[in-house]
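User: Please predict the structure of the protein below. I'd like the answer in structure-token form so I can feed it into my own downstream comparison script.

Assistant: Understood. Taking the following sequence of 199 residues as input:
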Amino acid sequence: MDSGPRSGEFTAIPVADDDPFAHGEAPGVMPHQGIDRKRRRKMEDAHRVGMALEVLTHYGVRVMHDRSVPGSDGVIEQVVIGNNGITVVRSARLMGRIRSTKNELYIGGANATVLVNGLRSRVNTVRHLVGGEAEVQGAFALTRRRRDGLKFHGKIALGSPQALADYLEQAHRAEPDDEHLGALAEELEGIFLPAAMLS
């Protein structure tokens, strides 16, 4: 007899048929109560960012959530596909002043270099897998940051989920029936499978 999800498993968010976010899958996955606090917060942050980015679909932009990284046990939280290429999005529960040097990133006094290097690694993986078909960039959603514009660390955009959504809307706005984007999104769907399928 199945008693529901066990500790460490995820539960899909129930979505009503008339829900504006019901585009085949809910934006992100909310964790089951039994998992540890740190992992639950990470999933809540990814969900919050997914909800902010979902509005981009109204502008012809494709958004994929919670995707596995081929050849590893890593996960890409969001992949945004639009007119100017692909943006790989990662979230972190950070706030405070952003200070960037050539090789290091500090957010609120904490060294975030390892986090941004992990994002760069995901960007390079996507770049390699799409083989130059599209420009690939990274974006860091700081879920505890208020809406106050963006900062950049090299080519990686950093800001609140809403600031990133506004930036990506302008950068990636496309026609809803853009055939090239549709083909690219379909190709990426086949490469980056939903993480839940592989767990």
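That's the full token string. Confidence is low (pLDDT under 50) at residues 1-26.
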